[in-house]
Amino acid sequence: MQMEFSVQGMDFNRAGEAAAQIKKALQLVGMHVDTVRRAVIVAYEAELNIVIHARQGRLAAYIHPDRVEIEAVDEGPGIPDISQAMREGYSTAPDHIRKMGFGAGMGLPNIKKSASHMQLTSEVNVGTRLTAIINNQTSGD
Ligand SMILES: Nc1ncnc2c1ncn2[C@@H]1O[C@H](COP(=O)(O)OP(=O)(O)OP(=O)(O)O)[C@@H](O)[C@H]1O
Ligand SMILES: [Mg+2]
Questions:
Q1: Residue 140, pLDDT score
Q2: pLDDT tens across 6-40, in order?
Q3: Membrane-crossing residues (predicted)?
């Protein structure tokens, strides 16, 4: 199963809607609750990063029995230093964005923690691509 959403920069009215749709689908197909939780964190943070930092992009989810793949591709300023961007607390979000409650610099670190694998590539003044795989938990609770 495959889902795809377009995400518009600065569209705070719809921010989080794609992640919410992905959550519903994962619950419907009966993914493990922990897999749903982790995939939704990844999808939400990736979606919000497009809204806050990029011009426009698309968020896709590929749902397999054993894993969820989340892909976020955008056109925007790109990330000049990926390892700096991955650091907890690092954010370039301006003041008016912080006043809305974003810009703690925790999105990318949380994606890394929640995903089984993640890959982040970017080209300055072109855009950014994030892919993450969340393995489905199949045993235990
Ligand atoms: N899609 C993107 N395009 C351009 N820059 C990005 C993108 N995603 C992240 N960044 C850069 O990486 C930094 C860190 O991202 P991260 O998601 O960890 O924090 P944040 O978005 O600033 O705050 P938070 O996610 O906690 O609300 C951002 O401040 C921004 O400079
Ligand atoms: Mg973020």
A1: 61
A2: 999 999 999 999 999 999 999 999 999 999 999 99
A3: none
Smallest Cα–Cα separation from 90: which of 108, 115, 78? 108
Q: Tell whether ligand 1 has an atom less than 6 A from the beta carbon of residue 106.
A: yes
How many domains, in total, are found in the chain? 1
Per-residue pLDDT, 99 = 96
Instruction: Summarize pLDDT for 85-105 with one digit per residue, the tens.
Output: 999 999 999 999 999 999 999
- For position 100, which CATH number holds? 3.30.565.10
140 is a domain residue: no
CB 72 less than 6 A from any atom of ligand 1: no
Decide whether any atom of ligand 1 lies within 6 Å of the 57 Cβ: no
Domain of 104 in residue numbering reads as 2-135
Closest-CA residue, ligand 1 atom 12, reads: 85
CA-proximal residue: ligand 1, atom 23 (nearest): 103
Residue corresponding to tokens 């703690």: 104
DSSP three-state, residue 131: strand
